[in-house]
Design goal:
It is built from 13 helices and 17 strands. The protein has 410 residues and is α/β, with parallel strands linked by helices. Helix 6 links the parallel strand 7 and strand 8.
Amino acid sequence: MNCRFCQSNLTHQFVDLGFSPPSNAFLSNAQLNQPETYYPLKIMVCDKCFLVQIDEFAKHDDIFNADYAYFSSFSSSWLAHAKAYTVMMKERFGYNEASQIIEIASNDGYLLQYFKDQGIPVLGIEPTANTAKVAQEKGIDSLVEFFGIKLANRLASEGKMADLLLGNNVLAHVPDINDFVGGLKILLKLNGVITFEFPHLLQLIDKNQFDTIYHEHFSYLSLWTVKQIFEAHGLSIFDVQEIPTHGGSLRIFAKHQDDQSKAVEESVSIIIKKEQDFGISSLAVYENFQIKSEKVKDDLLGFLIQAKKDHKIVVAYGAAAKGNTLLNFAGIRRDMIQFVVDASPHKQHKFLPGVHIPVLDETNIKAMKPDYVVILPWNLKEEISNQLSYIKDWSGKFVVAVPELNIFTK
């Protein structure tokens, strides 16, 4: 395997989480007795550019298909984050009815709806037809396509270029990162702005967030590496913000390298230094991650085995991709967690890939009165524990496994 950015031969392993099916490949009842396809979750790190990455075992267009199960609008905290972003960007850059905003991986219109409500023209690019259909029903113009140089050239030839070109949690999802960033260069107006948000590799390592590794995430990103990738395609990062989403993310601001209208902020050098001090461009920082990941697995398994011996009822909340990574890595089945609750009707009445735990709606928690609720999307711990605070009525407790086992009451 060669590095997807610099093409160097990859010889250094970061972590091996075994084999699992794609994290959003939920099963119907009829599919439970059919074979599932499992792929390696083996992550490598490039010793030249320090891009952390997985090979494209599960193909891009097989993962992001018309049955894709993730709809962004089912998290109230994520909607609030998106709305706050639109307000901030309009105030900072003055977007108005004469501007063109384009979002890549626009999903169900969770973000563009807020720009549209302000009368700003928007265009979504979203490869999963079922989520794009929801956006279109909101009146958001959406193209059901994968983004890259070919699509960027076509849109530019049609005069559809971006004053603001944005993408949240998509940069990690592209197998050909050079084609993707090359397309950004083509689609951006001369004085336009690019913003991208992605989980920060530094936080993944520091906080043991191994469950954010799954087949949809082809790359795991630091500012150090993303800066190299953007500069290789004629783009310059001029600002960066640390934000709390997904356990700690970066929001980068980029421009054309020859755009002199935007000064490079001190934030860029500050985050680069923070990463260097942490050791992000040294192989040593990647060496013990396997042991840390296995400790989380072992601790969760130990808790669940003891709960089973004590005849305790354990369920989970949040049929998130990170939960599927954790459950498959640990080999947890329905004998330990009876069901998972999720707010999305697109996941309810289906089964988690690999482990085959059923996904139900929240009424089942109230009916079952479990002793423990394992919160799988730990990044939404506050939102979920507030929502389910009523479990204290029967002395129920919450459990979070990452970065370490934590059992708590609300």
